[in-house]
Design brief:
Blueprint (H helix, E strand, L loop, with lengths): L4 E12 L9 E19 L1 E6 L2 E8 L14 H11 L3 E9 L9 H12 L6 H16 L6 H7 L5 E6 L4 E6 L5 E8 L4 H19 L7 H4 L5 H25 L3 H17 L6 H11 L4 E7 L5 E7 L8 E3 L6 E3 L1
Helix pairs in contact: 1-2, 1-3, 2-3, 2-4, 3-4, 5-7, 7-8
Bound molecules: adenosine-5'-diphosphate and magnesium ion (MG).
Length: 333
């Protein structure tokens, strides 16, 4: 009998820096103490998997050279795409258990990609793992997502959030103080996300056609964009990149009131300039912000549903998950 092995990939919550990664901007996510664990044994030339979190049994032969997005069950698309990216020939038989809600903006898809990548023997750097996983996500879904999810999960650091420069691909760990709670609250499953996400990527590209890379542009430049939608998208991205810098400084300086204010301001920008929130999420953000001890709240993830995240005094929020900053994707011995 071959040895039973295990890999674990955390989910992530993005504290600030939303819809900035695909224009090479700044993001500030943290890997969390919820994740996806794959328990498996080595198998020659096949991947056979089941999951607690999704119906069906996956069986594909290796090397995989089909179209990942036609694989059934559908969740196997991510597995097939990752195995194709890695050119895997040595497979596995196993079972997936996860406590990340799928489709809620906590990156269950990137956790799945990183977990299967490690299980298939990937032995490069966390950055290389995240880049393979991002390409796999593109192949599996056709959605042109940025690098944040995969890189924050591959390169997570216990006790820290990570400031990621999505142009230079540097990852700078920042301590998450233990005298605040980070609380995640699930609001609703996402709707429309795939197509609207691609629309936002295209709208930012239109803005960049006018004023150059948004990561380098200023609010003065934004004034030169005559098209309303592209102008608002650009304004969000430029302000949001600055919010990441300001949030990191406020957190490091222990100014949680300011850090929370920046999060709530970021939510308003996602609602008004980027049009990715929903009335239900806006209500939830307002409700949490009215609770004593809450410093700030925002939607987190791509939007159109999903989760909100708040920072607050310890114990101030009892409805939701208090998440702690965790290590990145890893083999478990
Ligand atoms: P998010 O990454 O925000 O959770 P996505 O829509 O990007 O949302 O990814 C969710 C999809 O990832 C699910 O529909 C499923 O196909 C796949 N997935 C995630 N976690 C699991 C799991 N534990 N088992 C099987 N499939 C999963
Ligand atoms: Mg995802």
């Amino acid at each position: 009998m071959s040895e039973t092995l295990r890999v674990h990939a955390p989910g992530r919550v993005n504290l600030i820096g939303e819809h900035t990664d695909y224009t090479g901007g700044l993001v500030f996510p943290m890997a969390i103490d919820r994740g996806t664990t794959l328990t498996y044994t080595a198998a020659d030339g096949v991947i056979e998997l089941t999951s607690d979190g999704a119906p069906g049994a996956l069986s594909i032969s290796l090397p995989f050279d089909g179209e990942p997005n036609t694989v059934e069950p559908h969740w196997g698309s991510y597995i097939a795409a990752m195995s194709a990216e890695l050119g895997a020939t040595q497979g596995l038989r196993g079972h997936i258990v996860s406590d990340i809600p799928a489709g809620a903006g906590l990156s269950s898809s990137a956790a799945l990609e990183c977990a299967i990548g490690l299980a298939l023997g990937f032995d490069g750097t966390p950055l290389e793992l995240s880049q393979a996983a991002q390409r796999a996500e593109h192949r599996a879904t056709g959605v042109p997502t940025g690098i944040m999810d995969q890189l924050s999960i591959a390169a997570g650091v216990a006790g820290h959030a990570t400031l990621i420069d999505c142009h230079g691909l540097s990852v700078t760990p920042h301590v998450v103080p233990d005298d605040i709670d980070v609380v995640v609250k699930f609001i609703a499953h996402r709707t429309l996300e795939g197509s609207e996400y691609a629309d936002r990527v295209a709208e930012c590209a239109r803005a960049e056609d006018k004023i150059g890379p948004l990561r380098l542009a200023t609010l003065d430049d934004v004034g030169r964009i005559t098209e309303d939608i592209a102008r608002r998208r650009a304004r969000h991205v430029i302000n949001e990149n600055q919010r990441v810098r300001d949030f990191a400084a406020a957190l490091a300086g222990g100014d949680y009131v300011e850090a929370g204010r920046i999060m709530t301001e970021g939510h308003a920008s996602l609602r008004d300039d980027f049009d990715v929130s929903t009335p239900q999420m806006d209500d939830a953000v307002d409700r949490l912000n009215a609770i004593p001890g809450v410093f700030g709240t925002r939607m987190t993830g791509g939007g159109f549903g999903g989760c909100i995240v708040a920072i607050c005094q310890p114990g101030a929020l009892t409805d939701g998950w208090v998440v702690s900053p965790s290590a990145g994707a890893r083999r478990v011995h």
